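Researcher: Going back to the complex we discussed earlier. I've cleaned up the inputs and rechecked each line, so this should be the final set. Can you rerun the prediction on the complete assembly and write out the structure?
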Amino acid sequence: MQHGKYRFIVGFLVVPLGLYALFVVWPFIQSIYYSFTDWTGLSPDFKMVGFDNYKRMFDDEIFWKSLEHSLLFALVLPVVTIGLALFFSFMINVGGRRRKGGPVITGVRGSSFYKIVYFFPQVLSIAIVAILFAFAYNPDSGAINSVLSAIGLDSVQPLWLGDPNLALWCVMAVLVWSTVGFFVVLFSAGMASIPADLYEAALLDGASRFTTFFRITLPLLWDTVQSGWVYMGILALGAESFAVVQIMTTGPGGPDYSTTVMVLYVYQKAFRDGQAAYATTIGVALLVVTLAFAAIVMRLGRRERLEF
Amino acid sequence: MKTTETPAPVPAESGATVAKVGAPAGKDTRQKKEGGVLNVFSHGVLIIWAIMVVMPLAWAVMTSFKTDGAIFGSPWALPDKLHFDNWARAWSDAHMSDYFLNTVLVVGGSLIGTLVLGSMAAYVLARFDFPGNRFIYYLFIGGMSFPIMLALVPLFYVVNNMGLLNTIHGLILVYIAYSLPFTVFFLTAFFRTLPASVAEAAFVDGASHTRTFFQIMLPMAKPGLISVGIFNFLGQWNQYMLPTVLNTDPDKHVLTQGLVQLAVSQGYKGDWSGLFAGLVMAMLPVLAAYIIFQRQVVQGLTAGALK
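Model: Rerun complete. Updated structure for the full complex:
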């Protein structure tokens, strides 16, 4: 297979690699370089300023707020989403009533129905979901406050996105709503590959289903949970949080910067305030946070791989 | 080591025979009861979440048929009659038709480009040994975990300098570039699983490398291409961040941008029913396609994470 091999390899790689280098790799390298300049983005002239942007960043109150919110996203969202998804998928796959002559552990009736419905939000654009929920959260005539008054809670009419203390949680709830289904389906697929005799053995030994979950299901599913965790964290730090915060909260960034996140702050500094160099500096901070997050999760979650 | 703490299958089987004899009957009923309670509980919890998922969507569909007055007066009441004029207004006056067309063009172009270029790169990386193979592979893979926003600031000026800003073909090229990491990752793994003998036979028969790829390997890789194609279709159809930065001309807006623009402008236009009609219009085709191709969609979207 040597004949013309290298010509073929180069011919096949040159377009994809060139496109990738030009639009992805090169901008990444450039942005790290720009973070040491005073480039505005509006004019082609700039000069090196050393670590000035980084010094400015460490004194920037809004940067610290956005960092705090991004870290909160990266910690809370995976815990809540993956926790809920594990709970639901355990219910779907193991919570069924034992049918005569059937296997000891069965899924609930209609398990495929639940999986189909739960997956709905995953196929919708996060932008559409954000618009929909921004309207549902509307304090005057939104769907949520109307339900509250319908069940007699007229006095409880929160401002939701308008309340600096609530806005961030409202945004996070939307991300949970839209991502839980994906993980339910993912974990269900993982659970289905766990041999049934492991469950049968544990149950016959008198283990309760909850013991079974923590002693059998979770350890055997650990690899999937871990990669799901990293995936969710990257989403929560990146594109998804940009869309929900930018679309849903006023400003955007919320009342009194209460919902601003790093990725939105990068966008605003670059494309609203004409401070491209400073924006790339915050972007580098975001890169550090993302890589640190992935490294920590992989490190903490490392355990012996279980073969079954 | 956890697996050894649970009893091995052999003692469990003997336990099962004992249970059949009937000695630990009490344990059996206890488990049945536990199963029953759990079953009711799980159904309850699962139904509540199903309602929480469906409610907002059903509410949006219902709202799209109401008048503006009814939307604000009684958000949960059924529409007095089906106001299809909302839909007509959204389709023509609010330019939903243009946004649809733009989205179809952008996604169509980038999906084909992503699959062709992605499979070419993946095939070479999976099947050929050459210096730099691993480096290029990891260069592609690395793109999956980097925050895209960091690259977007310089990318805006790269695209602008090339005269590609606010153009459909510019957006297509950028979509392809940002879809390549996952596509290459997924398809490289897929091409490795295909048998090498078929390609070698074709090559011995005198087919060129290029011909072997397009006529033999690509058809064999069809299941993988479908999975990764669905994944990219949804990602590109729903893309919001890239067009927001690179495509600011209102005439070139894609669906997600157009809808956000529409939502923002309702502050002074006040055509809320039209906005909801637009939202539902954008939601329904994707949901319908998902329900029809449910199995393939789920496989396509979860395959990456399970690998």
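Model: Worth noting: Chain A touches chain B through 118 residues (CB under 8 Å).
Researcher: Good, that matches what I expected from the previous run.
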